[in-house]
Q: What sequence folds into this?
């Protein structure tokens, strides 16, 4: 039985040149988009066009190419702002989500001291754990972790109990990169604000798979990376409420982020430029802007339905598999399928799947505490994106079934 058509997949796939290629003589089935998504022609062309036609360093330029490039760079900022419902001056370009979280941990962390508490969850990516551990090591800040249920759902009652007068920050993922669990970030934000804590949402996976309105969520910070959102690597986004960014000291020092510099003193530029020291990722910003334009031309809810249908098809195709363990079965989850195969190491599973042309990721997915919570050392992960097809979901089920036979 075929799935209802939510999207014009033929047209979408035609936008991604890489999807035409073969691997080991088989058509590529790319199920690793949670690690990094492929790029549509619009992104590739926007970046080449800039390099071929109008490129120079940005800001304070007095010649045409510098002005045009500055306009393109700042237009990308406006596109990002519009995409998540933020103000233009609330968007800081960073190297990626990792740098965005490090920026907040470092700059906001400067005001923290011994005994201040930060609440994280057991399902966080290392990018949303390690920068906070730095504050534990350097400042004596206490880290607390919200537990999850066996299904991979956050225990909100436990979260409520962890909150208190010493909680300064709650940092939580919008959607898990391992289980696909979608966390109730608006409710989490409300609960954290009730005790006066700030909230940072790691939107790396969330922003890709659902429309995001940062004002509706009301979080103080929301971060994501371009390369998972069909844009280029090397650029990410820190959204911060204007008043929050204004209260933060700079993260790195250098050109572009100052007001005035003398031999005795410095003053800083206003946000967002205060946090963009040095020459920024200009071409990458232009590429990210193109990715957002491209994605905005599609029906985001239709994408979510399409991805959910692919996931359901895989679950159905593997329903009788008694050799399979799925990590995370939250009722509200995105199309990320993490699993273990009895008697097989996840790396071996991924390598054999690759022989069938199927690209999945295997390892700890930068989420070692979550792996430990599930009692495994690693898992394989198939992650679905808007360009994946029903035939690819079936090819994955078929290849996985054949792969398992090696270990039976
Ligand atoms: N958070 C989550 C949930 C992620 O999936 C990732 C990327 N795997 C990151 C943070 C880190 O993103 P980046 O490596 O692009 O900085």
A:
């Amino acid at each position: 039985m075929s799935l209802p058509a939510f999207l014009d997949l033929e047209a979408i796939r035609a936008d991604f040149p890489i999807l035409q290629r073969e691997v080991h003589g088989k058509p590529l089935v790319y199920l690793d988009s949670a690690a990094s998504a492929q790029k549509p022609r619009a992104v590739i062309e926007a970046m080449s066009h800039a390099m071929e036609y109008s490129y120079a360093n940005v800001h304070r330029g007095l010649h045409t190419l510098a002005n045009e490039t500055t306009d393109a760079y700042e237009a990308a900022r406006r596109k990002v702002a519009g995409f998540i419902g933020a103000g233009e001056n609330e968007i800081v370009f960073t190297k990626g989500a990792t740098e965005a979280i490090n920026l907040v941990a470092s700059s906001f962390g400067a005001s923290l001291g011994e005994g201040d508490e930060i609440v994280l969850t057991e399902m966080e990516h290392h990018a949303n754990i390690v920068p906070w551990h730095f504050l534990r090591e350097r400042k004596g800040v206490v880290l607390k972790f919200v537990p999850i249920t066996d299904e991979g759902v956050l225990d909100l009652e436990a979260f409520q109990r962890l909150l208190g007068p010493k909680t300064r920050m709650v940092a939580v993922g919008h959607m898990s990169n391992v289980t696909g669990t979608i966390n109730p970030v608006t409710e989490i934000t409300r609960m954290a604000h009730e005790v006066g804590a700030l909230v940072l949402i790691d939107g790396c996976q969330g922003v890709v798979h659902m429309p995001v309105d940062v004002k509706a969520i009301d979080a103080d910070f929301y971060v994501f990376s371009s390369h998972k959102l069909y844009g280029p690597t090397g650029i990410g986004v820190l959204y911060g409420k204007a008043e929050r960014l204004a209260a933060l000291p700079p993260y790195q020092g250098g050109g572009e982020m100052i007001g005035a510099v003398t031999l005795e003193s410095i003053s800083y530029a206003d946000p967002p430029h205060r946090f963009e020291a040095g020459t920024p990722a200009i071409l990458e910003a232009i590429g990210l802007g193109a990715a957002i334009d491209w994605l905005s031309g599609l029906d985001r809810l239709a994408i979510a339905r399409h991805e959910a249908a692919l996931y359901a098809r895989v679950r159905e195709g593997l329903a009788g598999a008694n050799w399979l363990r799925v990590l995370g079965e939250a009722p509200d989850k995105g199309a990320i399928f993490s699993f273990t195969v009895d008697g097989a190491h996840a790396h071996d599973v991924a390598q054999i799947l690759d022989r069938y042309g199927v690209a999945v990721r295997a390892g700890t997915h930068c989420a070692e505490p979550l792996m430990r919570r599930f009692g495994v050392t690693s898992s394989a992960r198939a992650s679905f994106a808007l360009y994946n097809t029903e035939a690819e979901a079936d090819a994955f089920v078929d290849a996985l079934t054949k792969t398992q036979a090696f270990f039976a």
